[in-house]
């Protein structure tokens, strides 16, 4: 069931839209506009549920970085906010 929903979500993402040179895809997500509980599609990982944005310290660093937290069936993932706008897309049924 989940795989079917993922496929439908990805098909909607791809659609028939042809990107023009210099065109910024309107499908990408600004992580600051998401609400807790919104579903998103990560380009490489798949569909997850947006949990929130918060500062966290990564391994080997003492500097706090702002991360987007996404919940998946098998756990939680964090993605730097700077990467999120390139890697996340809205999931619409």
TrEMBL record:
Region of interest called Disordered, as start-end residue ranges on this chain: 1-21
Superkingdom: Eukaryota
Domain CarD-like/TRCF RNAP-interacting: 34-91
One Pfam family this sequence matches: CarD_TRCF_RID
Protein name: CarD-like/TRCF RNAP-interacting domain-containing protein
């Amino acid at each position: 069931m989940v795989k079917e929903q993922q496929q439908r979500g990805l098909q909607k993402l791809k659609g028939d839209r042809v990107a023009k040179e210099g065109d910024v895809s309107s499908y990408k997500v600004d992580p600051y506009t998401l609400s807790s509980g919104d579903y998103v599609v990560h380009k490489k990982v798949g569909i997850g549920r947006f949990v929130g944005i918060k500062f966290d310290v990564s391994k080997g660093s003492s500097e706090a970085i702002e991360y987007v937290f996404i919940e998946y069936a098998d756990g939680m993932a964090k993605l730097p906010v700077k990467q999120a706008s390139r890697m996340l897309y809205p999931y619409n049924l």
